[in-house]
Amino acid sequence: MYLAGECFFIDxxxxxxxxxxxxxxxxxxxxxxxxxxxxxxxxxxxYPDRFYDDTTILEIGDHDYVTRRSYMNYNLxxxxxxxxxxxxxxxxxxLVTADIIQRIRYGIEDSEFTPFDxxxxxxxRAG
Length: 127
Description:
Elements: E1 7-14, E2 20-27, E3 37-45, E4 57-58, E5 70-72, E6 78-81, H1 82-88, E7 89-92, H2 98-110, H3 116-126
Antiparallel strand pairs: 1-2, 1-7, 2-3, 3-5, 3-6, 4-5
């Protein structure tokens, strides 16, 4: 079982030296059974002079991992099953707070960059 607000590292790409890069994703809904689907949204750092989605901003300290001003990158949100998470993710403590998970959920609806499959899963799960 995974809870809404749990965070996972997912290997996403290789750096210029060939080392695996991982990104932190936040789980949006509870998942119990292997077939249950949830939404994973990555946290990315805000860099000067680079575009970012300002729908949901995280400040330093909002989560132990957030050491620089960051944002929820809805454009790279994913719909995944529990079994996929079991096989591809590494759990990262602690959970984000209930307030932040609610902000992320609002952001899924508000961001113009949320993928269609993520929006559809959100509507299905949120009611």
